[in-house]
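Section: protein folds

Sequence with per-residue tokens
===
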Amino acid sequence: MRDIRNNIVFSIAGVHGVGKTTVFKYLQDAFRNDDKFKFYPERYIVKNPTYPLGSINKQIAFRGEIFFLQQLLKRNTKISRYLSKKRNKIVIMDRTPICVLVYSKALEMAPKDYKLILDLFKSIDWIPEFIVYLTADPETIMKRIITRGRISFETNDQAEKQRKKWHERDKDYLLKVLNYYNEFLLSNSRKNKNLTIIQTDNLSPKNTADKIGKIIFKSVTDKKQIEQDSHLDLTNFF
């Protein structure tokens, strides 16, 4: 969302494997020489998680989401400080903080553990944002999950081990995550002008990045008053 210093913050949201981080990197490459843009990856402080995200072990899943929430809080603080000193900047984040609630629900952790995460989430003064939600058919996403580890690991066996550790090969888990993204984001999409949905089944990462670039420039050049909701309306879900 646009703040009083005319800065705008965008987040790219989506389930694991949809191509979110790849698209984020395409945008980084496209605008790396434009000083109006500032990019923040999802794990801004610690690149390697202390706990595997998406573990089927409920206690480890809880610790993983607390860890991730901590990372997003630190990132939120960094961005707030940056924007307080800048004008006319465009910030792009890999992931929205709402993803912590989505994954905590999908991992079916104990109600008391989820309540703790929810209470922590609600206590944080999150930066107002435009959310660009990337989605696709579950079969498409599963195919992308199988191929996405090949860049990060020396062998496919290493990538496959990581996918299993993070619960990424489980289609039922994927469907649960998609379902909760629907509840948190899509169910309120008509009421929230700060959400854009992109169906990526027939789009390459570059094509998706190009679409997001157009959305960004439309938002920057739009002269209409931008609604100042700090977040999507999650009141009913809370």
In short: Residues 223-238 have pLDDT under 50 and may be disordered. The first helix runs from residue 20 to 31.
